[in-house]
Amino acid sequence: MEAAIRIEGLVKNYEKFSLDHINLEIPKGSIVGLVGANGAGKTTLIKCILGIIKRDAGEIYVDGEKLEEKNDNWKNQVGMVLAEANFHETMNAVQIGRIMENIFSQWDAGLYETYLNDFKLEHKKLIKDYSRGMKMKLQIAVALSHRAKILIFDEATSGLDPLVRDDLLDILLEYIQDEAHTVLLSSHIISDLEKVSDYIAFIQNGRLLFVENKDEILYRYGVGKCSKEDYSTLDKEGILRLKRGVLGYEFLVQDRQAFMRRYPDMVVDAPDIEDVLLLLEKGEVVS
């Protein structure tokens, strides 16, 4: 599958934090959910992809070309949606459109107006009087109206009410129907990622712990629960993480079916994405 973005051996060093040799492919025509705790490196990775900060090592390819070899026009094809909109609060949507027309070479004023109407955004209402969800929809309208082929969301759905988040996710699912379109969606809201993502990329302390097909995670992984005594009898091969609790142990296995064949009396549940990520984040590594 052709990659919209390919990252090879990316390193970015700070005094107390580093992105450590990140390798990541974002397939064209897919939604990749980027997850990790605060400070894990998600925003730093996004800034490297956009060329906002300079990396210390590694390569980034966009549509098969090195980032440094692409002309500045490539950013016309990228739409960025942030947790907080940077539009001037005393302007309205019409004025924003006029400014964007002078920024983006592929700006489509008619398409912008269509999105404003579809998203039920009042054209002359000041941005400061928009709700947070309306500001988010305005960002998306701008991104889609300069015909961006890549959308990058950096925690943009956090703090929105469930109905607005659901609207935004539906917009992404419609956008991705065009196989030339790609989405990188950074979010703490795992249920959102589970709804729309094709792949899940998990960053922990600056390292990319895994990139997995979402459906494969749901099909293959398993969460087992047992007593301390029962756990001591298990072969630890295939157990990725262990969480010790007062009432018993919880553990993550990479191949649920294989584990259940070996231990047919053991309770091993099919997880959701949040179960897997919480155990990867908080569980201890099983050696």
Automatic annotation (TrEMBL):
Keywords, A to Z, come to: ATP-binding, Nucleotide-binding, Transport
Q: Answer whether the UniProt record assigns the keyword GTP-binding to this protein.
A: no
Q: Where is the ABC transporter domain?
A: 5-230
Which SUPFAM superfamilies does this chain map to? Answer: P-loop containing nucleoside triphosphate hydrolases
Q: Which residues form the signal peptide?
A: none
Is Protease included in the keywords of this UniProt record? no
Where would one find coiled-coil regions in this protein? none
Tell me the Pfam families matching this sequence: ABC_tran
Q: Which GO terms describe its molecular function?
A: ATP binding
Alphabetical list of InterPro entries matching this protein: AAA+_ATPase, ABC_transporter-like_ATP-bd, ABC_Transporter_VariousFunc, P-loop_NTPase
Name of the protein this chain belongs to: ABC transporter ATP-binding protein
State the species of origin. Blautia parvula
